[in-house]
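seq:
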Amino acid sequence: MSPVRARAPSARTYRSGQANQAGDTVWVFRDSLETRSSPSNEGGWTHQDASFQPAAWHIDTVYGCEGHSFWCGRIDSSWVNDANRRGYDNSWTQMLSNYVNLLSAASPVKISFRHQLEAESGFDYGTLEVLDLDAGWLPLRTWTGSVHGQSGAPCDTFTIQIPDSIMAKYNPVQFRFVFTSDIQGSAADGISAPADGWSVDNVTVKAGTTDLRFFDDFESGPGTWTVSTFPAVGDNWRIQANVPGEQVCTSNTSKVWTVTSPSTGALIPRMDDKLISPPVFVNRADQVFAAFDVYRNLPLFSCFYYNVKFRTRNAGAAWSLWSQSSSQIYFGTEKEWMRQTVALPGAAGKDSVEFMLNVKDYSQVYCDGVSTPSGTAVYFDNLALGVRGLAPPSILVSEQDLFQDTFNTAPFWADDNFNSPAGDSTSVRLSASRGLKQATFFYSLNGGSFAGLPLAPFGPSIPAAYSADVPAGSYPRGTRLRYYFSVTDSLNETVTLPSDALAASHYFDATVLPAIQAPSAACAGDTAKVLYVNAFSGPDGGASMDQALTALGLRFDRYDVNAAANSFGNSPGGGTPGPTRTWPATTAATLGMYSAIIWDVGERSSSTLTREDQQLLQAWVKRPGKNRGLLAAGDNLAYDLVVNAQDIGTFLTCTLGTTYVRDIWENTPQDSLIPTLAGAAGTRIASEPFPLDGRCPSLNRFDALATSSCAGPKARGWIAYPNAMLASIEKRDSVGVVADSSRSVLLGFSLAGISSSTRRNLLLYRTIVGEFEVPGCYVATGVEETSAEAASPTARLFGAAPNPFNPRTSIRFTLSRPARIRLLIFDVSGARVRSLADGMLPAGDHHITWDGKNDRGRDLASGAYFYRLEADREAQAKKLILLR
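struct:
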């Protein structure tokens, strides 16, 4: 989900600080919106509200059992990729409801009906629910895929008892049929065929064997049935200047596109608003992509996301159907302006393109129908369309479509145990405007030779999508899959993904864990002692931790969570059990061979540790048989568990021994961007310095923590911030008859936040090898056991005074020893505007004045600036405000 940033061929720079792309890129459309206004001068942009949906449940004879039935579906002649043009649409949650009087009814009371279903298996569902006044709507049964009667009969008959506990609470008893579909795979897009929907008939409720309480065969109309309706909520797209925001590192006071409510300033429940560009002539370019600046505060659990779609046209032909640029939807809480580039793979070789920004409430698909609009916002600016001519073919992939590491040795979802979070196979988007000659999936098992399989086209509904899968089988523990993609166009030009697959033997990979490890005289067996769960940087982002753990002499396995922020439930804990496709969970017993688990969620602020992950770790850390040590790290891990209510109730306070204090460790303003932390007194890292890097372009919000009452004296501070608030908590416990140690350490920051690999290695070594007592299996080469005094920082930077200031301010710092220093001023875009000092200074206290001017002696404008002190390869920075 991370946006791609682009650079410009000219001197123009976007407000995000990013310039347009250079080289062979031609910008055929750019709109800064500065000369635009709403509603009468929008420069050819159009927008529409698509939130209205017709009621899908209706009585019909098109798709039924006998005579008339209630059918959740419709006929639409525009669904050209569906053979019979009938069925259901994407993102549906359609309900058919009624009630039955069960006063004095004898148990058992059973509901029965006839029905048939054709829906995308594992993604779209029909559910029978009854209302429990205490617990809400409860599912009695869920169906997916194909449901029909025996011997070719269209409909099956189903009967189930209504729980006595529900009848005892309320009369009449309410029941409903709910049909739900996800964001793709319907009759509307033709991805899943057939997709005829769900029909029900002859609904009967009977008490005992003869007491008929309800019957309807729908031959006399709708009766007391009610169906869900979805009126339009309104089109709120408009061009506006000076939109509200919380950005610190970037600024934008110019005109932007916003879709928030004019009254609340937030997004609107059930919204589905589409912003469409003017038609852009792209002259059959080989590559086409959209680019824009975006500011977003779209938390995952708010369920407001956006996607990018496009459609194409050649001269004399009609516009194509809208196609999504990829399988991704976008969200994030950066609260900063940034540049995002989205490739449009199906637009190559076309005359004209339109692209669409679609901001939508996805709660019906992902959040049980409940969105959280408070504080949400998304703005767009500097929208552009770029092309490249004479370009080679291209391959795009999303993390969710790559094969996932697994502990499962039996097939699941289909016929093998190498699967992606999104399905059984791996898929890519291809573009070859000069003609596609060959597209191949190459794979290797356990270091063997690479074999090739053709990438199969998905179909006309997604013409750029291709997929492939490994051969069927139950791949055993230790199987390592390496793979890459290759595409050749009609001019025999070939590209691969990864791009350096052939040149540098760089491949995607997935492993059936535990891996088979190299022999070691110090460690028996062939299994690892440490499991590193990379839950933030994707399948190609854990190399630095690999290097660190290798340098520490540790034998470890790495589990990469693909598209971790998307909440696919594909981490070791597995997904939430339910009707949807669920990643199989790993048991604590399966992880029993590991003595330590490192779980790093990076800078993620939502869905950091699912309930299933917490339950797994809670069971594992208390498992007897050997020492257990859990190191959990993340800038917003504690924040997410508490503020987003993701904690299972005892994990943070009892398992990790921690109480969440606040999201930012220091008082506002957050100006200590590179704080130096210190090991807490009485620990094996006492007084050891650990500098964190929390600078722009995206400020890091390091959590402030405290010990919990649940852990009592078993919890203690492990690392402290400069203001003495705690950055890390350790809980020391034991388990088992022989008193194996059971310890946990929670870091209120990510491991990547420690910019010095030497300092990070020392923290890992003292924690895992020292505190968790996990012995190394190989020679440790990456730890420098220096004294705290020798490693103490040279400089300490203090806050400027006055701050805010006009016309001058004094910057104070101290040096513990003589050092060469540089004191620099930067604006919010990261550009250096003034050098205040550059040279040797003696030890002691120093004050340097800044008069608000740049290096040319010109007065700078009001705004936020950063002053940065560099001394002996150390750097510290703080923020100040200039007011004219």
